[in-house]
């Protein structure tokens, strides 16, 4: 079981390196976030043992139940929140996570700014863009994204590092990644959080600096209870 996870992680890292070379990207410029949501500490430990340090979770409470113990064992873990955030969870999110990928409205931006000031922490911040304008999906509309990034700076005092998107499941992802890269350039942002198990090489071709990869490393996810 742990051999499988090690082999899958090695394969993903090889594929990232190959895609960086193929698309003229600097080695290491596309950084892997291993998405460990729904997997328990025993499933995560072999991935840490294999050298992976950057992990992603989509629920604050689930992350709180797993990561304090894992961090006590390994100090240089970098934890990314990649799921939707409620403003009443902003304190927990800012205290637990090193990066937050899902800022998409003023209420959340304000709550995160308040907690950063209170806790003296400065997580890496991303604005989520709903590139497919899907009603069930979080994220700000593409046409509002640049102005929202400006408001985060001017009104909330937040230094946004980049943009994040999750393309619609039934569409080819390339045009969504291209749109995200264009919006980031317009907003003067360097970081692009895009690409999952099925499309991270395409994301690298379009300039991804962080890819969020779950299944290709951890295997099939148990259904969410
Ligand atoms: C689960 C999840 C991923 C990882 O998806 P895989 O297809 O398992 O690689 C990436 N991003 C977000 C926001 C997720 O919730």
Automatic annotation (TrEMBL):
Domain of life: Bacteria
Occurrences of domain Alanine racemase N-terminal (ranges): 25-222
Tagged with keyword Ribosomal protein: no
Keywords, ordered alphabetically: Pyridoxal phosphate
A matching Pfam family: Ala_racemase_N
HAMAP family per the UniProt record, alphabetical: PLP_homeostasis (MF_02087)
The family this protein is said to belong to: Belongs to the pyridoxal phosphate-binding protein YggS/PROSC family.
Name of the molecule in the record: Pyridoxal phosphate homeostasis protein
